[in-house]
Give the backbone structure.
Amino acid sequence: MRRERTPAPLLVPATLAVAFLVLPLAGLLVRTPWTQLGTLLTAPGVGQALRLSLLSATLATAVSVVLGVPLAWVLARSRARGRAVLRALVTVPLVLPPVVGGVALFLVLGRQGIVGSWLAGTTGVTIPFTTAAVVIAETFVAMPFLVISVEGALRAADARYEDAAATLGADRWTTFRRVTLPLVAPGVAAGAVLCWARALGEFGATITFAGNFPGTTQTMPLAVYLALQRDPQAAIVLSLVLLLVSVATLLLLRDRWLGRGGAAG
């Protein structure tokens, strides 16, 4: 397609939008105390928060893949009734305020919760304010990103390969493992990266359901919030780390998004 000059009525608001999105990030880079970067990054609390964030986000992503890929297949390929309702329920965490999600988890899995009371009375295990609670909260808010990505990949995949496998005598499980999964592997990978990035940045549900205990439930976003009240310079450095992780996530997805857009252009 022939490239045309952008009309002024579109160029002006587009420029303002770019400035609105980029200037805060530029301000973060400008105000970063580069001379104190090493000292602030090696502080004991920073290392603990970073390790816990990476561990919990990775575990949440693993749980999301194990549970979310089959769910995406049900939404994309199953003919069961109520799929529209199920899809709506799956996407609710995307629009639900994270704090509300944390409250909902607490009412279900808390010591006096619907499931938590039974769990505590039967096994003596309590979930809230533990590292497991961090993983559960992150999984709750991040899994829909993976499900939507994989469902889209399944809908876009050529079903003729699966039909050919069925014609050759493969059952549905074998077809799913040997044909469907390889077809949608890029979608699963992209969804997993998005899920991991969302889990890494989770704040509201985590602080509500898991609390903010250093070394146990204090992830990087919670550490930023706490540092902002005590040491703004440390908060800036922690925010810079999360910004770098976000940029790295975008680079991992560049072939799927930016590359596709460039090819279209």
Notes: The chain has a mean pLDDT of 86.
